[in-house]
Every structure is written in C-alpha cells, then in structure tokens.
Amino acid sequence: MDKGRIVRRLLTGQGVNGFGDGLWFSIWAIYLTQIRHIPAGNMGLAMGIGGLLGLFAAVPIGVAAERRGPREVLCTVIVLRGLAMVAYVFVGGFWSLLLVTTFFSSVQSSGVGVRVTLVYGLMPAEDRVRVLAQGRVVQHIAYAAGAGGAMLVLASEEPAVFVAAVLVDAVALLLTAALTMIVPSVPPVPRERRRSGTQALRDLPYVAIMSSTALLSLCWALLATGLPLWIAQDTRAPLWTAGLAVVVSSVSIAVFQVRVSRRAVGIPEAVRASRISAVALAACCVIFAAAAWTRSPLLATGVIIAGMGAHVVAELYYVSSRWGLSLGLMATNAEGQYQGVTASTEAAVVALGPALVTSLVTGLSEAGWMILAGLFVLSAVPVGALARRAGRDGFRAGPAAHRPAQGVKT
Question: Is the pTM of this model over 0.70?
C-alpha cells in the first residue's frame, strides 16, 4: 500500500476518534452528576483514582504491541475503550464508576503510546513526526466538531439524548478500530531480538527525560482549569475570555503544529524545543498573573490574550519536543514499551495537574503563578544533560533512525 493512502486512513481514524472524544469530554461531568445522579465529590474522586490506576497498563500494553504487532494491539485497545464507553451507560455509584473509569483510563492512556509505535513502524524516518503532527491537527479539528455536537446534547437536558451521545462515542471508537485495521500490519519484534519487558522502566535516563518534560503538559491544566478560575476570581476580564482562549489555542494548533514539529525531529532540536516550551510557559504564567493588576476589563482581556500567545508557543513546542525525544531515544525493538513510558508519564501529570494548578492559583494567587513559572523552567534544565547521557547508548533508535519503515513502499 502506498504511503499516502496509509496516512489518509490513519488520519481518518484519528478524526473519527477525535469527534467522539470531543463529544464525551464535553458532557461527561454533567452526564455523570445529573443523568447518573452521582454526587460531584464522588465523581471527582472516582475519576481521579481511576485515571491514576489506569496508568499502570501503558507499559505492559506497549510490550504486547512489540510481541503481537502495534496495529493489532491498537485495534484491541480501541474496541475495549468502546466497550468501556458502553459501560458508562450502566454506572450508578462510586464503585461502579471507579471500576469503569479504571478500565477506560487503562486503554485510553495505553492507546496513545501504541498509536505512536504504529506510526513509527509504518512511516519512514523523515515522515514520522510530520504524520504525528498532522494527526494532532485532525484530532483537534474533529474534537471541536464533537464539542459542537455536545452543545446540542447539553441544551436538550433529556436523559435519552445523553445516553445516545455516549453510545455515539462508542460507535465512533468501533469505527476507528475498523479504520485502523485496514492499514498495513507492522510485524512483531522477532523473538530473538526482543528485549526484556522491563527494559524501558530500567532505562533511567529515558524515564528521567520523559518525567521531566512531562511537567510541561501542565499547560493543559493551565488552560482548562487555572485560567477560568483566575479570570472569574481575580481579574476584571469577562468569563467568556476563557472560552476565547480555547478557540485561540485550537486554531493555532491546527495552523502551526506541522510547521513547528519539523523543527524538532532530531535530539538536539527536540531538546531546544523543550527549552522554548518551558520559557514560553513561564512567560505565560507571569503574563496571566499580571491580568489581575488592572481594573480595566478591556486591558485585562488584552493581557490574557497576550498570555495565550505565549501558551500557544509553549504547547506547540512541548508536543514537538516529546515526539522528537521519545522517538530518538527509545531502544530499537522495544518501541512499544518505551512509548508506554512516554504516555504514562504525561498521563500522570495530566491527572494530577488540575488539583495542583487549582491549589496554586486559587490559594496563592500571583505567587502561585510564579511558582508554576519556576517549575516549568526547572523542568527543562536537566533535559540537555540527560539527552547527552542517553545518546551515548548504542541501542537507541536515534543512530538507526533512517532505516526504512516496515510495511510501506519507499
């Protein structure tokens, strides 16, 4: 199968998946509290614990991708996620929600790493980051469309409409699995070349790099949690500014992600991208803090939009740096488990991020923003040294990055 057709099928599947995600993640809080009648406190606790427990599945499923093939494992993971989505129709309390969410989070976080492993195996080296960036663009556009559909669901307030929306997401996941199955299969790693299933966890330089740069994924908690609370409680900017920030972010990612990602293909470029992201996020925090210093709603809004400019730069370079570092520094013949480590470190920060950002921003006000700025800068400090240390190991993918991909005409 030619490369262009493979890419189109991958992107179509990611678009369908993105639509379902946009629909679900825009309604889940209202669905669980008002339709399934789960108290908000119990819901938050179950979702938080379930999300953290789900992280432990990423590496074992990554190992399975190496031994069974990433396409086959990814399809299985997506189907299981669809079944978990159906199970949300039947949750009725804390324990059932915890059980379903743990299962859902396990396959969700694992799927991220397996998808990267599949792209790595299907695409030649020069196209891998570009295809990942294109997938993110398509996903964001489809996510926005799903969120638009969620507005209709939320406006209806009918339980049957909410249940139908949940089932639509389940169908979208099954369709994504079907689209994934029609891309070529990447052969499993031959038995004689397989590495230990704990290779990635024992690779301390890699784990340290992924853990350190994962702190930059707090950028999403800033946008989704910290900024709306800050606008509402400490600035004179209108609350709709928070929605405008999301629009600015989504549009900017759609326009610039592919272009920025081309600058972070190699390890040195990826290290530089992580530093740019850290500095931009620190600047973003300082600018957001400054929005509380003016009593003019117009000026406060302008300051927040300026901060969003820095936030967009940070997010674009963060995502690009993670791809460049994770693809270049993982071990050959252990791609699945290494991408599992990458996905789980990021997912852990994403799970804990809202609580951390909320406590700092609402509890310490401007000082909280300064602490976050310092944390972002510190997270990028060891990356260069760790990357140089990791680069001395001959088993990593970087030296062999330009070998042809499997299953693709080149």
Answer: yes
